[in-house]
């Protein structure tokens, strides 16, 4: 994919920093253009972005031909200027040919190479009628999206910030930390959910909840610049500070109570019985041995029956310890709520206390259900039956999602979570109210009984 943009020196550097955030070795980045076009300026910004606080001086390698740099991100960086190269055979003597196999190589004057390295990124800088600007042509996969991120950050006034990737999730969204005045997080979501996220952010902040402040936005392009709530994910804090666990667990449940007590925002979709059944249909399409065409209708009927007479409440849906930020006495930080809906009151408690990614002591789950019921006044037996059904439905959907991520998207790492999710499913199915569902799933193989191996065999390379 090729994209062309008009760039100042600051935008050129911002583009370099954005590319530095996602470059993985081995990588060849070819910097083409005449003398004075800004090739070394781009390379310098790239290298300093990778090095962060350990950044060195980055001189032009015009006379040395090659400069090498240590990279705290775990990669060796080579910066080569081939202008004075007279014979491509000299590349072996310089060591550049070997470096292309393992390092990130920024190569000025790439026309001196005998051949363009396979998979190389080509960035051409050309003179513009305005001497303060350059034409930049970027040729690489996803070039348009990377350039759009750089332009958005530049226009938001964060063009000098170092950019580092943050762990993403199972969606198409990507997150980057911008290290600057106070820090910020860039949310890149091409799926079209940015307007919903922005609207939900406004509602949450207006009601005193810990959503990040929006610092800049381009909803049409799918970009938000968000307040950085920090690195203290609840999942990480619980692992590192078990002494804080009772306090954090109570705060999570109290947050759920408060969220559900507030009048929900208008216009949210409702997760009723048919919708819950439709979401579980993914399990029947992707999980080995789950040829159960009647499963969605069965779940829908059970949901409508077990949840009868209970008004739906706000549900953030992906309400779990990796989407919550611990901030001490400040409100718990919230992430990933663009898919908020109206749902049965048990939906988010299930999400919180039956986590696919980490083990939760059944005693902790029981204590927090009790705390939630005491605070909300829901009828005990009816709530627990609905909780079990929603837990089973979510487990089935998650198993389907993990199978799809492996088969369709080539992301098999989620398969490691399947045994835990299957265990949650079995505990929920033990509830007497779920006897019809338990019978329907009786012959479906568990992940450890060959299902994971069959999924791996079908995984996209």
TrEMBL record:
Signal peptide: 1-23
Keyword S-adenosyl-L-methionine (UniProt): no
Subcellular location: Cytoplasm
Gene Ontology annotations for the cellular component aspect, listed alphabetically: cytoplasm
Protein's name in the database: tRNA threonylcarbamoyladenosine biosynthesis protein TsaE
Domain of life: Bacteria
Matches recorded under NCBIfam families: T6A_YjeE (TIGR00150)
Homology family: Belongs to the TsaE family.
UniProt organism field: Paracoccus aestuarii
GO BP annotations listed: tRNA threonylcarbamoyladenosine modification
Keyword ATP-binding attached: yes
GO terms of molecular function: ATP binding; metal ion binding; transferase activity
Pfam families in the record: APH, TsaE
Ranges in a coiled coil: none
Database matches in Gene3D superfamilies: 3.90.1200.10, P-loop containing nucleotide triphosphate hydrolases, Phosphorylase Kinase, domain 1
């Amino acid at each position: 994919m090729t994209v062309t943009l008009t760039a100042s020196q600051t935008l050129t550097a911002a583009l370099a920093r954005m590319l530095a955030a996602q470059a993985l070795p081995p990588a060849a980045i070819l910097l083409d253009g005449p003398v004075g076009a800004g090739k070394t300026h781009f390379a310098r910004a790239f290298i300093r972005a990778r090095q962060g606080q350990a950044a060195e001086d980055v001189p032009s390698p015009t006379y040395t031909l090659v400069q090498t740099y240590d990279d705290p991100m775990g990669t060796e960086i080579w910066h080569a200027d081939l202008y004075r190269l007279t014979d491509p055979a000299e590349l072996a003597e310089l060591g550049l040919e070997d470096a292309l196999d393992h390092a990130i190589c920024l190569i000025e004057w790439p026309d001196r190479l005998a051949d363009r390295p396979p998979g190389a990124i080509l960035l051409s800088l050309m003179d513009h009628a305005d001497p303060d600007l350059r034409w930049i042509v970027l040729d690489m996969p996803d070039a348009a999206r990377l350039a759009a991120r750089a332009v958005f950050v530049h226009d938001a006034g964060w063009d000098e910030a170092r950019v580092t990737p943050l762990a993403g999730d199972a969606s198409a969204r990507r997150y980057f930390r911008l290290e600057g005045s106070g820090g910020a997080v860039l949310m890149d979501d091409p799926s079209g959910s940015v307007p919903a996220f922005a609207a939900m952010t406004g509602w949450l902040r207006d009601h005193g909840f810990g959503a990040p402040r929006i610092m800049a936005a381009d909803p049409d392009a799918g970009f938000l610049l968000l307040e950085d709530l920090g690195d203290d994910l609840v999942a990480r804090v619980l692992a590192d500070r078990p002494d804080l666990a009772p306090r954090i667990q109570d705060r999570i449940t109290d947050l759920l109570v408060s969220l559900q007590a507030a009048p929900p925002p208008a216009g949210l979709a409702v997760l009723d019985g048919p919708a819950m059944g439709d979401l579980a249909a993914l399990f029947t399409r992707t999980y080995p041995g789950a040829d159960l065409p009647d499963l969605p209708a069965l779940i829908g009927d059970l949901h409508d029956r077990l949840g009868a007479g209970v008004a739906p409440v706000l549900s953030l849906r992906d309400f779990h310890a990796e989407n919550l930020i611990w901030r001490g006495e400040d409100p718990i930080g919230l992430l990933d709520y663009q898919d908020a809906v109206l749902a049965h009151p048990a939906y988010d408690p299930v999400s919180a206390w039956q986590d696919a990614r980490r083990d939760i002591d059944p005693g902790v789950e029981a204590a927090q259900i009790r705390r939630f019921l005491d605070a909300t006044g829901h009828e005990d037996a009816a709530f627990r039956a609905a909780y079990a059904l929603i837990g089973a439905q979510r487990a089935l959907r998650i198993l389907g999602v993990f199978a799809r991520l492996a088969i369709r998207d080539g992301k098999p790492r989620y398969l490691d979570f399947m045994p835990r999710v299957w265990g949650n499913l079995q505990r929920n199915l033990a509830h007497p109210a779920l006897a019809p569902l338990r019978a329907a799933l009786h012959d479906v193989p568990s992940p450890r009984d060959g299902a994971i191996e069959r999924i791996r065999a079908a995984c996209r390379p």
